[in-house]
Amino acid sequence: MNKLPTILITLLILILFNPAISEASADINDKKVVILVMDYIDTEDLILANTPNLDLLIKKSGTGLMNIRAKNRYPTSPYMSIAVGYRVGTINNSELSFNSDELVSNLPNIFENSTSTVTAQELYSLFSGNTPPDNSIVNLYAENINKNSQLYNPPYEMGQIGKISRDNHFIVTVLGNADTYGTFDRGIAILASDENGVIPQGDVSRKMTTYDSSVAGGLKTNHATILESFKKYIANSQLMIIDLGDTTRVETSRFATADDIVYQQRQKAIEQNDQLIGAIWDEIDQQNTMLLIITPNPHREMLRNNNFGLTPLIIYEPEEPVGLLTSATTRRAGLITNLDIIPTIFNFLEADYTANGNKAYIGKTGHNSISVLDKQVKLYQNLRANRNPLHLVFICLILFTIALWLLVNRHKISIRYSYQL
Known about the structure:
Layout: H1 4-17, H2 19-29, E1 32-37, H3 43-48, H4 52-58, E2 62-67, H5 77-84, E3 97-99, H6 120-128, E4 137-139, H7 142-149, H8 160-167, E5 172-175, H9 188-192, E6 198-199, E7 201-203, E8 209-211, E9 219-221, H10 223-233, E10 239-243, H11 246-252, H12 259-283, E11 289-294, H13 300-304, E12 310-316, E13 323-326, E14 335-337, H14 341-348, E15 361-365, H15 370-408, H16 410-420
Parallel strand pairs: 1-10, 1-11, 2-13, 2-14, 5-7, 5-10
Antiparallel strand pairs: 2-12, 3-4, 4-6, 8-9, 11-12, 13-15
């Protein structure tokens, strides 16, 4: 009898420190997804930029093109389409999210240049009747977004990524912004908010940027602050979404900039982003973390070249083969849609969810270079550019065939017509 406590203690120690059990627990409990947004870039940009960290990541990942089409041309509509799993549109100013303790002095169509010291939390409570948690992030146009969403067919509810995460007890964190010196752009928050426009934690404030008169927009992402915040939040986050920001600033500031300068600034931003991507890669648990790099919007040159909706996508998933991504939605190697992001991330996290779209997976092993994707893009561009001439030729052939048939059969037609008379 006296040996029983000793035996029980020994068994407890063996269970607690058994490596196999520890590894199994890690597989179940420690999975994370990190999404990096590098907006307004294309495959050619990635080929021409010097990106050693991205190049290394691509060798370990699945790559593809993402169809980013949305229902209108507001830059936040592709973000909303990803966030709800349907091709939808949203409203102007939907990018205006703030840390709950940020002071807000300007809200378009509500008040401008106010000297008030009202916080985003207080404004959110005023607009919605609900008080968001301290240290959260709030979208101050959430009520208007949800009203507008009912006008679509089918109607949708914003914030499915955030809602699914909350229902599965996952914590979502958002870091960064695409602000310029004179504007606020926190479209990144749309990806992570719940149906009420709230994100439990993170930082989308100007603290994530630093002033720099030599770059587009007068601000650039503060990599040191982003990395410090990443280390702070990653331990208790199941989903981390980061706006790298600088490529967006290049695009939104191009109205006053020559096209060749826009190109140079975009290349510089991509190369600087590459350094941050490398630093984040070194910080993640690569055995239990899925890493995505997505581009929700096309830049102007892409539109000029008839690429209205195909942007590069990189997905690293532990212990998965490398190659070209596909999904049951597209069934084409190297192509998925923005509807497939929700199933992809929550399938990896083993969440309980219902969503439109399908999980992205490797449809063709190997061939996972950006050059292969660039060739696909150019093929689609050529097809689009030549579609109208091909249609015209086809119509002319049909008309010619009809005319030829009438000519050959004119005698029979004449006799039949005379007989009827």
